[in-house]
Amino acid sequence: MIGDIALCLGGALLILGAIFTLLAAVGVVRLPDLYTRMHAASKAGVVGGGLVLLSVAIVSMDAAVALRAIIGVIFVLLTTPVAAHLLARASYIAGYHAGESTVRDDIKTRLEQNSGS
Questions:
Q1: Which residues contact 77 (CB under 8 A, 6 or more apart)?
Q2: Confidence at residue 93, expressed as pLDDT on a 0 to 100 scale
Q3: How far is the C-alpha of 104 from the C-alpha of 90, rounded, in Å?
Q4: pLDDT at residue 117, rounded to an integer
Q5: pTM for this entry
Q6: Is 89 helix (H, G, I), strand (E, B) or coil?
Q7: Residue-level pLDDT at 49
């Protein structure tokens, strides 16, 4: 009985994680510039990957596998936003700027403030 509930919950989380991962892939393909693509990949990718790992933790019914999956979720939650931030900042400094539809440029303002003082 409990195994059937865990299997159904795990399957639902797996499908939901796959949908979020698909949305991240569509965002990478369809969005206009590097920064919005990186945003889609990092946010939806983290949620999709996290849900897939939680699905593995629930379906495995093994404490060692579940612990590794939960540690994997924590690792992805901690490292992906930091990596996306560093890649975006390095891209900006290398000369790749946002598209024409971008209204606000905080990095430019901060770089101008730092170089002026």
A1: 46, 50
A2: 87
A3: 18
A4: 58
A5: 0.82
A6: helix
A7: 94
Structure-token pair, residue 34: 């590097």
CB 76 within 8 A of CB 56: no
Residue 15: enclosing H or E segment and its boundaries? helix 2-30
State which residues of the chain have pLDDT below 50. none
Q: Which pLDDT score, from 0 to 100, does residue 71 have? A: 97
- Picking from 74, 57, 56, the residue whose alpha carbon sits closest to that of residue 66 is 57
Angle, helices 2-30/34-60, rounded to nearest 10 degrees: 170
SS (HEC) of 21-80? HHHHHHHHHHCCCHHHHHHHHHHHHHHHHHHHHHHHHHHHCCHHHHHHHHHHHHHHHHHH
